[in-house]
Amino acid sequence: MSAKKMDGSGDGQGAGSRQVTYRSGVAARLAGLPVETLRVWERRYALSETQRSAHGQRLYTAEQVRRLGLLKQLVDLGHPIGVLTGLPVERLEEMIAPDPARAREVSGPMRVLVVGDSLARRIAASGRDGRALQVQHQHARLDQVVASGDGVVIDVLLIEASELDEAPLDKVMAARDAVHPAATVVLYRFGGSATIRALRAEGCLVARVPAEVGELVLLCRSALAGQGMPAEDTEGVEVAPRRLDDAALAAITAAGNRLNCECPRHLSEILMMVGSFERYSAQCASRNQEDARLHRELELASGRARVVLEEAMIRLALAEGLPLPGKDG
Q: Which of 15-29, 164-178, 278-292 has the lowest mean pLDDT?
C-alpha cells in the first residue's frame, strides 16, 4: 500500500505541504497491533497527541507509529502498558535495544531446546521466520529435560507452560541446571504474578506466548543479549494528592440519593476503597527490599487508579449538579 493511500490526503489537505500520516487501522498494522488494542490504549492512556482528519479520524505520524511499535514489543516482553505510556521514546529504545557487547553473539541462528509439543510444531511449520531457531532437542515435559540433559549444548531453553502456577518453578530451575543454557525463556498464556516474578528473579525471560514465530525469535535474542525485565523505577515518582476526601464523597453520595441513578454512590464507594488501599500499601510493613518495591508499585498503581476515578466522579458531579469541594452545592 502506498503512502498516499495511507495518509490523510483525501481529507482536504495537500499531501505535498505536510508530512505523511496514517489512519488508525494502517498505523496499527504497521506497528504490529490489532486495531482494537490500539483503540483501547488510546482510550485508556491517551498515547499520542494525534492529528484529526476532517472526518474526526486519528492520524498518526511515522514517528508516532514507530513509538507504537516499540510499545508493542515491550508489552510482548512483559512490561505493563500503563508504565510504558509515560516514557519518552528514547527510554523505550533503551529498554528494547540489546546489549551491544553481546549483540554479535546472538546475530546468527540460535540452538534451542524446546519444551512443549505445540511450540515445536509452530517453529517447524513457520518456514522462513523460524530459521533463526535451530531446534536441537524437543520434549513434551520439563522432567524429560532433566532425564536427558547430559551432553546437550544449546543457547536457549525455550519452555511453553500454558498455565503458569507455582508448580513449574522448581521444574524450570531443574531443567536449566541440567542443560546449562545461555538463556531461558518461559512462555505462558495464564500465570500467577508471584510465579512470574520468581522466574524473572532467577534470570528467566518470561512473556506471554507470542502470536508470531518472528516475535518468538526476538524474545530469544533479547534473552541471549541479557535484556532483563526491569521493574518500574519508582524513585521520585509521585501521584497527585486526593481531590475528593471522604467527607466530599459522603456529601456527593447524600446529594445523589435524590437521583434515580445510583452511579454517584457506587463510584464513591469504589473511590473510598481504592484510596484506602493506596494508604494501606504506603504503610504496609515490608519484609525485604523486594517486598518494599512491590508495595511501592501497588501504592502508585492504586494512586493512578484513584486519579482517573476522581476525574470521572468530578465529571459526573458537574453533570448532575452535585456538590464539589470549593464549589457551591
A: 278-292
Amino acid in position 177 = D
**CA neighbours closer than 13 Å in the CB half-sphere of residue 313:** 29
Residue with cell 500500500: 1
Residue 149 confidence (pLDDT): 63
What are 39's three cell numbers?
A: 483503540
d(CA 239, CA 39) in angstroms, rounded, equals 25
CA–CA separation, 257 vs 12, rounded Å?
50
Grid coordinates in use for 33?
A: 497491533
Q: Give dist(CA 117, CA 44) in Å, integer.
A: 37
Residues whose CB falls within 8 Å of the CB of residue 152, separated by 6 or more in sequence, listed in order: 113, 136, 137, 178, 179
Q: Are the C-beta atoms of residues 226 and 98 closer than 8 Å to each other?
A: yes
Distance from the first to the final alpha carbon of the chain? 57
Q: What is the model's pTM?
A: 0.42
Least trusted range by pLDDT, from 36-50, 264-278, 280-294: 280-294
CA distances to 173, 176, 204, 206, 279 from 183, rounded to whole Å, are: 12, 9, 7, 11, 39
